[in-house]
Amino acid sequence: MTKTTYITQSQEETLSLGIELGKHAKPGDIFALIGNLGTGKTILAKGIAQGLGIQEEITSPTFTLLEVYESTLPLYHFDLYRISDDAELENLFFEEYWFGDGVSVIEWADRALKRLPQDTYIITLEYMDTKRRKITIEHPAS
């Protein structure tokens, strides 16, 4: 298990960290983003998308639960904010995407932790102050 912690000083630094993650992503990678409102989950997701070469504007799919962005590696961007219990998640069959040929980014992933594969990147974002975020990345297979 590797665990790395970053302190980003701005939205731009959080975005840059996401870009680096996206550049190194492989088919089947899952990035589980955990953090309160305003901690930078969507900024990090935008960076991952840019690192994958996606030029479209990335927004949090709060009402649709899933947005698919096509690129060399497709991006499956989930937002589980509105999921209230495990039974509701079970009816959505998201695992089809998680084990697919693309990269999955899951905002509010703490609502699905029991369902995620062992080799998921668990990324915890914490608010430090108006500009700084503490971002911890854990990966059991590294």
Describe the structure.
The chain is of the alpha/beta class. It has one domain: 3-Layer(aba) Sandwich (Rossmann fold), CATH 3.40.50. It is 23% helix and 28% strand. The chain is built from four helices and seven strands. It has helices at 11-23, 41-51, 86-90, 95-98, and strands spanning 2-8, 30-34, 66-69, 75-79, 103-107, 121-127, 133-139. Strands 1-7-6-2-5-4-3 form a seven-stranded mixed sheet, with helices on one face. β3 (66-69) and β4 (75-79) form a beta hairpin. α1 packs across α2. The longest helix has 13 residues, at 11-23. The model has no long low-confidence stretch (mean pLDDT 90).
Provide a concise account of the structure shown.
With 142 residues, the chain is α/β, with parallel strands linked by helices.
What secondary-structure arrangement, pairings included, does this model have?
Layout: E1 2-8, H1 11-23, E2 30-34, H2 41-51, E3 66-69, E4 75-79, H3 86-90, H4 95-98, E5 103-107, E6 121-127, E7 133-139
Parallel strand pairs: 2-5, 2-6, 4-5
Antiparallel strand pairs: 1-7, 3-4, 6-7
Give the tags:
142 residues, alpha/beta, Rossmann fold, seven-stranded mixed β-sheet, 4 helices, 7 strands, globular
Strand proportion, as a percent range, falls in: 25-35%
State the distance separating the first and last CA atoms.
Answer: 6 Å
Name the CATH superfamily assignment: P-loop containing nucleotide triphosphate hydrolases
Helix content: 10-25%
What is the N-to-C succession of helices and strands?
EHEHEEHHEEE
